[in-house]
Amino acid sequence: MFDSPDVGENLWDHLALPQQRKLRSPAPGASIRSPAFNDPVFTTGSPSDWHTTDSIDPQELKTALARDSGVLVRENEGLLRRASCHLGMLMLYIGVPLDETLVTTYAQNLLPISRGAITLKSADISDQPAIDHNHYATASDQYRLRTAVPTFAKFMNTSPVVDPFTEEAVPPGLKMIREESSDAEIDERLKAATMTLQHPAGKVTANMGKVVDTEFRVEGVQWLRAIDASARHTPISCPGRVSCGFDFGWREHVMM
Q1: CA distance linking residue 252 with residue 246, whole number of Å
Q2: What predicted TM-score, i.e. pTM, was given to this entire model?
């Protein structure tokens, strides 16, 4: 047994706001349970076939990052060095209940800088670990998700995208999100309905040289490397399935 207390630090994941949209008619087969929804491709993974991205105002991001660090952010800061896809927008052809009348959209921040941790509760291996995602903890993450949500609302209300839909199916007690929704309204909705997209990563590279070395060999354990997503220190601005291809590529590179 080797004591490695830094394992579990630097946890990051994608936080998203799911929203359900009502179809004007289930006839086109745009949602699961419709008899016309019969393309076998959608049985091999998530019922989705597109994912769009958008950037943000670099000056607003620079201001937010300065609030996070407490110092002025240099232009060559990683998130400011070049135009990047910060906002992700995804649609799944499925809703709850599964009655062929709903689809679900997700607005997300693809490049979060909030970091959480996974720790052991006890020495009992049957105990579940304690997971603190610490989502939405930084000003820059808050700015980008607050931007993603109304940006997607605008997108979903623009023809021809809007044509198959009536309106958002709003959870009881909450307000509909619109392009002009305030930060306070967006935060209220985020607190009530956000979810992780189950892309956890970064858990062994918070302190390169303490958990793994620069060849991803686990310190203190012979013949063991950490070359899954837990060794990916920072997110990359692309859909989760594409980033899996990135993981496969660098694994092969590390093992060569």
Answers
A1: 10
A2: 0.86
